[in-house]
Amino acid sequence: MAASLTIDLEAEGKQFGELRIPRSTNEAAWTNLVVPVVTVARGEGSTVLLLGGTHGDEYEGQVALLNLARELDPADISGRVVIVPCLSGEASRAGTRRWPDGPDLNRSFPGDPEGSLVEQLASARASWWYRPSSEAASRQRARSASLATASRTCSATSASSAASRSCAATPSSCAPPRLRTT
């Protein structure tokens, strides 16, 4: 089974949930690795991802993000904040930098959805939290199309020497549009 998220990353307001990665161990035939996730969202805007506890023995970030998750009000932001206070709970509970079975989560990216538990967590981080919202994905596709059009126009214009001089004189007419973060 694949990893699952118990909250809707697109929903507005404040949500507390978890990322669940199925696993089977000697202690339990069927369990989940559970990673806490909090989202705070309101309106349109950028998405900020805050990760703590990649190394289990680094508690300051975990505590700071837990406090932020409790205190952050959707009315205070425009966009979305995704907070993962403790990405590496196994290492945090053990009080170690690495997971008890050896791997360093920070050296496991981009991960593998079919690999070890650490590799699955690294893969889930990329697939769940770094994917753009549907609206952002639409904007990115439009920007990519605009860049492709500008590139073709500049290439076609640059074919003649007179046009090349024109391009050199007015580089903004041939340069791809600047990307804005929203």
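[next item in queue]
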Amino acid sequence: MNPAPQEIHRPVLTDVVLRMFAPLASKTVVDGTLGLGGHSEALLQEDRTVRVVGFDRDPEAIALARQRLSNYGDRFRAIQANTRDLNRHLDVLGEGPIDGLLLDLGVSSLQLDRPDRGFSFRHDGPLDMRMNPTEGPTASEWLNQADETEIRHCLATYGEERFAPRIARALVRERAVRPIRTTGQLPRSSARRYPFDTTTAASTPPPVPSRRFASRSTKSFRPWKRRWRRDFAAYASAAFLWRSASTLWRIGS
């Protein structure tokens, strides 16, 4: 049995959102990042006269939000669209002017917890990263056809990645050998060019005993140290690449 939308995700800023829009009486609020409908539900429960129009690009999110909020009748409407087009859609619906706009930007647990959506590096899955899985190229398709300059621009601009040139070069070289298809392959492909950062305590490996006290134990420690650095680089690069790619697809490029 599939879990109910309420069990998949519970918003943590409900009280803040309600304070922000108070008083709610007879207001029309647009939830520009509908997701699973947690914030919309809180607004609808708070006042029986408030109306909410929810926008989301993810068709699965739209379906689950409609299921969750079906008891509120025509006080709630869900539209599968990008929030940047809200004026056009509101005109068609005859809704407006609105009294408030809520934007809780970023990916949600609905995307992150599903390996098949391609947003998470916790489990290997197809490198998709589309908010709407029915539109546009996947992240894999884009990554395997974009030139090095485009990849570097994406990483530097959307991910603020200072090692963007090195990573872009590594990805282009990797795809020349085999296409980059999965979320597991992506960080492995870029880790080779991601320099290990020793500028912070969190990324500094444990000290190695001096040569004076070298022994078999310290010699056996060195390969582990190299593996630790390699793995750290892989996870660090994965975090930056995920932020860059997911931001790119989020804004609808």
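[queue empty]
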